[in-house]
TrEMBL record:
Recorded superkingdom: Bacteria
Catalytic EC class: transferase
Boundaries of every Glycosyl transferase family domain copy: 178-340
Annotated ranges, domain Glycosyltransferase subfamily 4-like N-terminal: 17-169
Organism: Flavobacterium jumunjinense
Entry keywords, A to Z: Glycosyltransferase, Transferase
EC number(s) reported in the record: 2.4.-.-
GO terms for MF: glycosyltransferase activity
Coiled coil ranges: none
Protein name: Glycosyltransferase
Amino acid sequence: MRKIRILYTIPNFDTAGSGKALLNIALSLDNDLFEPHILCLNNKGAFFKVVEQSGVPVHVFNYLAKERPLFKMIMDSWKISRKLKEIKPDIIHSFNYSSNYTEALAARFAGIKWIFTKKNMSWGGSSRNSWKLRSFLAKKIIVQNKDMEQQFYPNSNKMELIPRGVVLEKFKASTPTKEIKEQMRTAEEQRVLICVANFVPVKGIEVLIDTFDKIHNQHPEWVLWLVGDDKNDYGELLKERVKSLDLPNKIIFSGKQLNITPFLDHAEIFILPTLSKGEGSPVALLEAMANQKVVIGSKVSGIKDQLENYPLHLFTPKDSLELAGKLSHFMKMNKAELNKLGEKFIELVQGNYTIEIEVKRHENFYKSLL
């Protein structure tokens, strides 16, 4: 019997978050039933090498036509459809973050079922019509949280809710390595708060910085690690903010890290201060839970789902005073108390957010299309 060929599309592997999610699913599919392929625009990004070495066939060409002028977009989409047909996928599954709909049009021209995962809470403004057209052209749509379901597709029969999952073994807590604390200019006796995030404004990292500024004198043994690629305008703004508060020895930036587990191993409390626009299904929070960390997140889309049964670990977006109160409460606990509390979050991930659960839902979803 011929395997079901799934072609996963993603613009690039420059930012590894979405790329890791895609690859985790592709590598975990039932090999007896599915044959994954990957298509992207270029071979840039450090994570692309990981994808190449994974054994999953990778195709590289421009599969996104420009939306204007209209006639040229249609002609270019037709040309792209011929290349898609050469790969012979049964289903094309788009991991593109944007509202671009030309990929869906090319798939239609090729007669291939096209689906996408809605990865963010963008919908209104200048992209509203593009999101509507992208959704109209899709055979089915995967959403990652309940707010997407209610706000974007309240009466749609195309929609399926599939939250993110993590590979538990990759994030299991282990004995911290001395080198990481040395790298982060942190003394052995100091305790660590951590935020792991893609450094973009919606993450609200400045709120966390301002919160830490309010409470660090009450908790002199604690430092804050900010883990992520800070080589952009937002990252520079955050560094300037830390410098202006005279906290460069208490708030430490790690720079881009492909493996965040050794950093989590040193931390006791994880914070995700996303602004009110919200998340899709934030995997960084799940990774921290899998590492037995006590987690705190803003009360926004995506995070609300994951911490639904832990309201004391949620705070109002941008409210640094509320966050300060919650942080202080946990920072007063000793390591054994926080470690015990972290066990509850491991159980939460094990029961609801493993890669096995996510992949099984995808497999059933693909089968339902055929």
